[in-house]
Amino acid sequence: MKTIRLTLFPAVLLACLALPQLCVAADAPKEGGWESLFNGKDLTGWVPVHDVTFVVTNGNLRLVTGMGWLRSEKQYGDFALEAEWRALESNYDSGLFFRVGLDGKPWPKDGWQVNLARSALCGLVKGYKTIVPAETPPMPLNQWVKCRIEVRGRKVTLDVDGERAWEFKELDVDRGYVGIQAENKAFDFRNIRIQELPR
């Protein structure tokens, strides 16, 4: 067994020196426990649900149109999710889903969502019902806004541009997908990343 290991080591070392991207690719998206959910090039890691059009433009994930959502390939339990977004047209409307399932059309049935509608910006919604009213003022078009959603057990908190917006302690689902809602309004998203948290 030792002979095999010693024989393979030089070959692996030479491969890493010649093609270093092969040896770091698995860890490249992670930084300090954070994993990038958007590579700035394509929709790798995302799955369109129902009738939606998302494209990559100038390194941004652009919601073009449609009534549905874009979901992560993976489900998450406890996590911190950060994303920057900007609205590109008036009366904008979208949302950031978390811990949602696949049932429901055009959006997850009874799904938890941070609302990105101009008229109810950053409120907490379950399905079509407002759970935590919005207190974030409407943001101008083309202005980047950063949201951080942290979910631990039954508790979820939201920070908007580094300021605590609200917290809620009665989540009723333990795990699910994260996603972006499409409501026929154009948005850009960037710097989407997630950090799984221990229970």
Radius of gyration: 19 Å
Number of domains: 2
Residue-averaged pLDDT: 88
Helicity level: 10-25%
Number of helices: 2
Quote the beta fraction: over 45%
Description:
It is a single chain. This protein has about 200 residues and is mainly beta. The protein is built from two helices and 14 strands; from the N terminus they run ααββββββββββββββ. Strands 1, 2, 3, 4, 5, 6, 7, 8, 9, 10, 11, 12, 13 and 14 form a 14-stranded antiparallel β-sheet that branches. The longest helix is centred in the N-terminal third of the chain and has 17 residues, at about 1-20. It starts with a helix and ends with a strand. It has two domains: about 1-30, no CATH class; about 30-195, Sandwich (Jelly Rolls). The chain has helices at about 1-20, 20-25; strands spanning about 30, 35, 45-55, 60-70, 80-85, 95-100, 110-115, 125, 130, 145-150, 155-160, 165-170, 175-185, 185-195. A hairpin with a 2-residue loop joins strand 8 (about 125) and strand 9 (about 130).
Which features would summarize this protein structure in a list?
199 residues; mainly beta; 14-stranded antiparallel sheet; globular; disordered N terminus
List the helices and strands and how they pair.
Layout: H1 2-18, H2 20-24, E1 30-31, E2 34-36, E3 46-57, E4 60-72, E5 79-87, E6 94-100, E7 112-115, E8 124-126, E9 129-132, E10 145-152, E11 155-160, E12 163-168, E13 177-183, E14 187-196
